[in-house]
Structure formats: structure tokens, C-alpha cells
């Protein structure tokens, strides 16, 4: 009897546990099938405001999950692979966008009822193109475009170059020779052209725009990319930079005024330790709002933006619908509002200054912009012009990592730790190690 | 006759279910991945022993192996040295140092800081031109020019080893003190009466009796040390700069898996790391154990 009681007890216990589990899953699937909760995943909080607007308009609830960008692909991948707890809408950053467009994570927007192909003329070419998979199907759309330029200090330009007009400064900086000429003039007056050598990587990338990897899985090393080594070395050797690498404390400090510098630091023969002010920074659209405005409070109004030797873009966020979502209609409504709804986008652009990729709106509003931080310059038209010059179809899923590996080797060459040949060969070796399927040049 | 009662199995079943699902299954799955080329999505492609052949000729893996040993070795030697010295001081009957609890807490404090804060703190302190370390050393005249600590292989490795020492000597000290307090006080008193000096007491009483504890410290530190990852990851570019000198085995594994999406090869590195850990733990255990048996 006792034994039997124990057995019954166990059975009851197990039933209870399984009941608890199943009621749990019921509750979950219940909220899944509800049509009025839209789950959105992203890596920044910039969707917060649009989501509020969307909720108010449609009377629905949107659940935004923000995952820091370093963990974002790692967190999202298992969710998308298994479909458990997956979002209805999720964003992708340029760094991993191309890895995802060719998966079936995002709904094919070229199909009915979305027909996104019809929108192609309404967007900045390269932006629309980046959201496509290798077969040309649209998988994700973006509301913004993120071309870059050179932000420079007007007071220094006036003093050294005799003008602070963006067109004239841009003219001077439009070739490598011009860049080095400006660098020399800056040096004579004790200024630094760029914070560090890494600043020019974008121009090397944009000079002869070709994808890193072609359709035969071959790594393409262009002369422009090889010249990046020489240009960077020249900047260092001629002392046109201020040893303030991007995102370092001194980089940020240098935006506000002079920073201490000791240009011969490592090599011995110490010269008098002095100070230098940095003339210009290569930054994209978001650099104005997220970097300069925040960090350069003392120099606000003393800035201008102009072009470098070649057009480039840096970053960007795309938005798509999860292919396994049960809430596709609502999800598409959100994507529509975010990427091609005139009323919302007009408000959004005016409020945040974000440079949009949706041309019907930008055509209407671009002439009204005047940025006090840039002494009233209309950065909006400038960036839109730059965006139109960007070659589309050259981004591969390898870019982010290969660019990083290249940058590291350029730095070793610039630091004098390796010869150019050694650095280039080490670069090939590292790319091959990271992506064994690729064929190296030579 | 007594019938076997199987009810007990029900009670231990939950543990084994969880253990199977969250430990055994991933371990076996990882082993399967070592024979595949797997990007992290889709189906893994079976490629036989290719990953194993690759790892034997992979110079980056060897580099990572030696880097890990160099950094861990220096760190462990210093950590154990400092902890032993402190343990000797605090256990000395003649010094009668007060406030053991207070110092224990102070020494252990660095271990409580999250590693990312430590990495940021030290990367700012070690900054070439603006860091307080260089400024301080220049001010007191030890160096005349700033040293770019994190930009040269040797100084970068030494810096990381020193930071790890700073973080972990308190923990080792606490463990050693626990061992010291297990040594009967009569032994020290007897030594004192016999006229043994501090050094003799330390070498002939404290050290031999601490051996089991030191073995424990060494093996746990070795297992932790071979998995060295967070600090090298955070303090420079996450790729092992400068010149690959901070490329440790787990950092290499991480980059192969999550940066380059070579999950199959990363799984192979994981198994290589496991083997290495087992081998070296066995060697450590064997050598220390044999010595203490002989004595």
C-alpha cells in the first residue's frame, strides 16, 4: 500500500509538472497568435519614438527588444534558426546585413503583397540595392542613408587655407595630392590634418569601388587598397596626424580643442612636447549627431562638412519582416511607415536630422535644412549628393572583417613593425585563415 | 527477499535529464561539428578530418597556445609568489599582524570588479600619450619617453599578466591562508622553541604542508588560465593585437566561431583546448602528487 501510494504520488507530481509546462506553452502561443502585439528586435533605441507613433496610430502594442550590437547577431541567429521566440520585425546593420539577406530569415518583399520592387526608384540606389539578396529579391528596406564626408573646423580653414567655404575646401581635398598639400599647410601652422591614419580608409575603399570578393570566391586586391598602405604611411611620416585613433579618449578630446602631442614619442630624439589641433574628421551622417554634437560642445558652430577624395558610406540600418512571423500584415505596416510613408518620415527627418534614403520626402524637405552646428550649412543636400555618387553592389558579407584585418596590417606597417610586403602577405594569410574558402591573389 | 526499489531513480532523473540536455548533448554535438564545415546556419557539411589536419598546421593556433602559456605562466608565478609571501607574513607568530580579515577583503577586492571595467580602466591608464602610468613613470624619472604598453608584443603580454596577477593574488592568498590555518600551531611553536628562523619555518613547515592546497590552486588556475579570454579580448582590438601577441586560444576560438562563422573549426579548437587542459592537469597532478608521496 505504502509503495503504491509513493507511485501515485510520483504520478500526480509528474502530471502537475507537465500540466504546468503545457499551460505555460499555451500561454505563450496564445500571445503569439494575438494580432495586436508586434515584436521588434533592434540594436539601438532609435526605433523607440517611431514605435510610439505606430502604437498610437494603430491601437496596437509593440514590444521592442534592444540587444547591444556586439551580441546582436549571436542572439538573433538561434532565434531565427529555430523560430522560437522570434521577432516579427528585426533590423540589420551593414556589418551583418549581407550575411542575412541570403538566408531566408527575412520575408521576400519582392513578392505579393509587398511588391517592394516598385519602390526601387524612390530610394537612394546603393541603399535599396544593399537590402537585396544575391538573386535580386528585396529582403530589407532602410529609411536612412549614411554617406560620409569630411567634417572640418572652419576657424582653422580660414586661418590656414584662407577660406572656410565647403565647396572650396572640398575642391582642395578632392584628390590625394590635394589632401597631402592641405596636410603640409596644416603642419606648417602646427595643426594636424587628421586625428590618425585610419581616417583615410574610407577614401581608399571608395576610390576604386570593387567588391572584396568576386563571384569566384577570389579576393580582389586593388591598387587603391594597396595605396592605402602608402597614403597612411605618408601621413604618419610627414607628421600630418595627431595620434588620436578613432573612439579613443584623445580622439574625442581633440574635437574640443588642442590636445597634447609628442610627435617623436617612440623614435627617441624627443622634440619639445607641444600641442596640436585636429583640422578634420572623416565621419558619416550619423557622426554629426552621435559623435560631434555630443563631444564638441566648445567648438559648436565652428564646423563645416565637405567631400574627401572619394564618396563613401559608413553604417546604416535596414529593416525587414521575419519570414516565419504570424503577424506579417502588421509587421509590413510598421516597415511601410518606417521606410516609405511621407507624413511620418517628414516629421522624423525634421525632428532628428536623419538623412533619409526615401527620395519623395527628401526632395521636398532637403532645401529647408540649416544646421547651426555647421554654421548654418545645409548638410542634408550635401549628404544626399554624396549618397547618389556611391557605387552600389560592392558590399559583400566578408567586408566588415576583411576591412578590420586590412586596417590592422596597415597600422603595423605605419608603426614600422613590418614592411609593406610583410604586412600585405600577413593580411592575405589572415584572410585565408578566417575564410578558408577564399582564393588569395598571386 | 527484498525487492529492488526503483523509486529512487525518479528522484535523480531531473538532474540527469538536465545534465543530458545541457551538458552531454552540446558536448557530443560539438564533437560532431569538429568533422564538419558549419557556418552557424543551415546544415553542417561533413568534411571528415579536415579540421584536425588544419589545426596541426595552423600557425595561429600554435601562436595562441604559446601566448596563453606565456601570459598565464608569468601571471601564475607572480600571483603565487605574492600570495605565499603574504601568507608567510600573516602566519608568522613573531610578526603578529593584526587585521587579517581587513586585508583579506582588500586583497580580494580587485576580483569583484567586472572584467570589462578592469579592461577599460587599464586601457585608459596604459594609454601611450595620455595614460597615468606613463605620466607617473616619467615624473619619477624611471623612463624618459612614454612607453606604448599595449602596442608592443612583450609589454602587452606583461601588462595583461600583471593585471591578472592584481586581480587574482587576493583569491590565491585567501585559499593559501585557509591552508595555513589548517597547519597545527604547535608545529610553529615547536620550531620557534627549536630556534628555527623564519626562512626555515617557512621552507620546512609551511611549504610542505601547503602542497595539497598549492596543487589545488595550480590546477584551478591552469584550467582558468588556459581559458584566458576576456581581458585580451577587451583591452586591444579583440583580434589579439599587437602583432597577435594577445591572441589566446579561447580568443582564437571565439573569433573563428563568432567573427568568421567557422563553427566547425572552432569546435575543433575547443576539443584541442580540452585535450591540452586534461594533459597539463594530469601532468601537474602527477608530478606534485608523486613528490609528496615520496617525502
TrEMBL record, chain A:
Pfam families, sorted: SBP_bac_8
Signal peptide (UniProt feature, chain positions): 1-22
Keywords: Cell membrane, Lipoprotein, Membrane, Palmitate, Signal
Tagged with keyword Lipoprotein: yes
UniProt-listed PROSITE patterns: PROKAR_LIPOPROTEIN
InterPro entries to which the protein is assigned, alphabetical: Bact_solute-bd_prot1, SBP
Annotated protein name in UniProt: ABC transporter substrate-binding protein
Organism: Pontibacillus yanchengensis Y32
Automatic annotation (TrEMBL), chain B:
A Gene Ontology biological process term: transmembrane transport
Annotated TM spans: 12-35, 71-90, 102-126, 168-188, 209-229, 263-285
Cellular compartments annotated: Cell membrane
Membrane topology (UniProt): Multi-pass membrane protein
Family, as annotated: Belongs to the binding-protein-dependent transport system permease family.
Name recorded for this polypeptide: ABC transporter
PROSITE patterns: ABC_TM1
Organism: Pontibacillus yanchengensis Y32
Amino acid at each position: 500500500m505504502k509503495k503504491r501510494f509513493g507511485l501515485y504520488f510520483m504520478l500526480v507530481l509528474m502530471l502537475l509538472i507537465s500540466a504546468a509546462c503545457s499551460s505555460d506553452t499555451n500561454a505563450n502561443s496564445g500571445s503569439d497568435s494575438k494580432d495586436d502585439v508586434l515584436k521588434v528586435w533592434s540594436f539601438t533605441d532609435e526605433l523607440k519614438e517611431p514605435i510610439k507613433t505606430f502604437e498610437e496610430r494603430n491601437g496596437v502594442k509593440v514590444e521592442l527588444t534592444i540587444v547591444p550590437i556586439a551580441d546582436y547577431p549571436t542572439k538573433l541567429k538561434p532565434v531565427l534558426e529555430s523560430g522560437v521566440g522570434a521577432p516579427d520585425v528585426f533590423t540589420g546593420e551593414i556589418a551583418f546585413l549581407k550575411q542575412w539577406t541570403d538566408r531566408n530569415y527575412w520575408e521576400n518583399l519582392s513578392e505579393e503583397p509587398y511588391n517592394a520592387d516598385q519602390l526601387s526608384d524612390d530610394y537612394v540606389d546603393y541603399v535599396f540595392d544593399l537590402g537585396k539578396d544575391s538573386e535580386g529579391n528585396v529582403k530589407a528596406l532602410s529609411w536612412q542613408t549614411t554617406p560620409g564626408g569630411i567634417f572640418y573646423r572652419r576657424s582653422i580653414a580660414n586661418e590656414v587655407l584662407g577660406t572656410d567655404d565647403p565647396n572650396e575646401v572640398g575642391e582642395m581635398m578632392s584628390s590625394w595630392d590635394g589632401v597631402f598639400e592641405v596636410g603640409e599647410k596644416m603642419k606648417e601652422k602646427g595643426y594636424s590634418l587628421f586625428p590618425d591614419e585610419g581616417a583615410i580608409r574610407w577614401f581608399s575603399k571608395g576610390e576604386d569601388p570593387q567588391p572584396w570578393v568576386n563571384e569566384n570566391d577570389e579576393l580582389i586586391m586593388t591598387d587603391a587598397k594597396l595605396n592605402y598602405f602608402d597614403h597612411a604611411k605618408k601621413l604618419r611620416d610627414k607628421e600630418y596626424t595627431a595620434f588620436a585613433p578613432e573612439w579613443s579618449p584623445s580622439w574625442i578630446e581633440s574635437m574640443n580643442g588642442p590636445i597634447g602631442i609628442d610627435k617623436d614619442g617612440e623614435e627617441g630624439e624627443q622634440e619639445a612636447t607641444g600641442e596640436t589641433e585636429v583640422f578634420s574628421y572623416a565621419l558619416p551622417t550619423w557622426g554629426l549627431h552621435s559623435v560631434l554634437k555630443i563631444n564638441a560642445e566648445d567648438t559648436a558652430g565652428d564646423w563645416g562638412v565637405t567631400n574627401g577624395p572619394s564618396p563613401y558610406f559608413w553604417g546604416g540600418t535596414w529593416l525587414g519582416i521575419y519570414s516565419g512571423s504570424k503577424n506579417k500584415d502588421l509587421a509590413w505596416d510598421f516597415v511601410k511607415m518606417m521606410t516609405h510613408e511621407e507624413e511620418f518620415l517628414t516629421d522624423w527627418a525634421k525632428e532628428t536630422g536623419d538623412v533619409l534614403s526615401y527620395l519623395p520626402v527628401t526632395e521636398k524637405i532637403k532645401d529647408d535644412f540649416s544646421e547651426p552646428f555647421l554654421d548654418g550649412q545645409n548638410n542634408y543636400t550635401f549628404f544626399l549628393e554624396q549618397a547618389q555618387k556611391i557605387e552600389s553592389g560592392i558590399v559583400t558579407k566578408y567586408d566588415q572583417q576583411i576591412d578590420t584585418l586590412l586596417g590592422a596590417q596597415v597600422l603595423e606597417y605605419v608603426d614600422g613593425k613590418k614592411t609593406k610586403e610583410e604586412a600585405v602577405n600577413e593580411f592575405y594569410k589572415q584572410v585565408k585563415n578566417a575564410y578558408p574558402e577564399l582564393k588569395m591573389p598571386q | 527477499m527484498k525487492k529492488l526499489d526503483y523509486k529512487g531513480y525518479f528522484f535523480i532523473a531531473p538532474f540527469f535529464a538536465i545534465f543530458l540536455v545541457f551538458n552531454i548533448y552540446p558536448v557530443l554535438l560539438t564533437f560532431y561539428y569538429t568533422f564538419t564545415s558549419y557556418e552557424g546556419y543551415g546544415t553542417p557539411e561533413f568534411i571528415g578530418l579536415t579540421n584536425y589536419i588544419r589545426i596541426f598546421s595552423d600557425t595561429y593556433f600554435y601562436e595562441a597556445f604559446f601566448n596563453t602559456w606565456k601570459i598565464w605562466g608569468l601571471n601564475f608565478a607572480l600571483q603565487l609568489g605574492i600570495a605565499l609571501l603574504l601568507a608567510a607574513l600573516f602566519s608568522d607568530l613573531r610578526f603578529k599582524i593584526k587585521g587579517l580579515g581587513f586585508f583579506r577583503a582588500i586583497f580580494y577586492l580587485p576580483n569583484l570588479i567586472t572584467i570589462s571595467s578592469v579592461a577599460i580602466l587599464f586601457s585608459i591608464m596604459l594609454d601611450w600619450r595620455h595614460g597615468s602610468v606613463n605620466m607617473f613613470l616619467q615624473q619619477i624619472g624611471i623612463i624618459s619617453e612614454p612607453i606604448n604598453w599595449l602596442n608592443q608584443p612583450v609589454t602587452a603580454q606583461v601588462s595583461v599578466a600583471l593585471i591578472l596577477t592584481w586581480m587574482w593574488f587576493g583569491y590565491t592568498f585567501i585559499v593559501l591562508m585557509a591552508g595555513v590555518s589548517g597547519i597545527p600551531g604547535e608545529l610553529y611553536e615547536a620550531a620557534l622553541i627549536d630556534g628555527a628562523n623564519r626562512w626555515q619555518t617557512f621552507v620546512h613547515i609551511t611549504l610542505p604542508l601547503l602542497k595539497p592546497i598549492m596543487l589545488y590552486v595550480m590546477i584551478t588556475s591552469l584550467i582558468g588560465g588556459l581559458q584566458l579570454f576576456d581581458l585580451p579580448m577587451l583591452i586591444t582590438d579583440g583580434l589579439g593585437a599587437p602583432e597577435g601577441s594577445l591572441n589566446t586560444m579561447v580568443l582564437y576560438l571565439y573569433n573563428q566561431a563568432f567573427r568568421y562563422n567557422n563553427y566547425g573549426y572552432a569546435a575543433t579548437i575547443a576539443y584541442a583546448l580540452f585535450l591540452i587542459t586534461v594533459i597539463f592537469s594530469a601532468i601537474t597532478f602527477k608530478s606534485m602528487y608523486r613528490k609528496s608521496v615520496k617525502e
